[in-house]
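Q: Convert this sequence to structure tokens.
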Amino acid sequence: MNQAQARTVETIDAAPAKWGGAGVADYWALLKPRVMSLVVFTAMVGVIMAPGSLHPVLAFAAILSIAVAAGASGALNMWYEADIDAKMRRTARRPIPAGRVSRGEALGFGVSLGTGAVAAMGLFVNAVAAALLAATILFYVVVYTMWLKRRTPQNIVIGGAAGALPPLVGWVAVTGTVDWGAIILFAIIFFWTPPHFWALALGTSQDYARAGVPMMPVVAGEKETRRQIFLYALILAPLGLAPWFVGLGGPVYAAVAAVAGTVFVFKAWAVLREAGATVRARGLFGYSIFYLFILFATLAGEKLAGGGI
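A:
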């Protein structure tokens, strides 16, 4: 750690009197809005795809609760990982390491939001969805952030379950039960997460090494990471067709999933073949976001076009 980073870490642990000046933008940044937008989108698709119906006001309450819970998870993640964020170029300007929000403020903010989100889900929607939402927050904060992140290169594999739960929570908000359709949506995101995240990590491995985080490229090396990305792509492509096999998606979805999955595999193959392929890895990272979006958007579009929701 250089002197500037050491000073930043010292600032994080400084007395509260040294803090101040936080604005709305800083608290908004604590929510990880880009991650939240993906959570809201996939949860909304879960609500749309679930059998049965939910009053629009209750559907809005469910989606809002999930969004707030995602923001709470982001704030609690930043609270716990402030020391890591201070050592990484990509995260050093976040509100806590930059000195605009204290760790205590972030903790209180996250706990308040998470508690409110779960309570609202239970009060306005149903108890099963509320319990699952609480489990999602706890899994992301306790299992992934506190336990796995600093201990194993499989952190994102196991911890990815938290990011895969929102469509399942949305589904349960409508039905009150966990069905096979919800499990398939969960599985798609679960197997999508490792190649998506490792494609980004290939270009930021020095940051993770500096922070002491055992991400796959740091522990297993670039070659093994590229191999793992390709293997997950081979699983993900056929899995993307599962909604069509069970009748959740129609022929349009089948065509989109087949083409998008094939492109994903070819992009992963290009990363596998080329050592030092950070440019190709960044391309795969960007495409992976489009891939997930187009699959879920097509599912929802077909359902709505057929008179669903």
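The radius of gyration is 20 Å.
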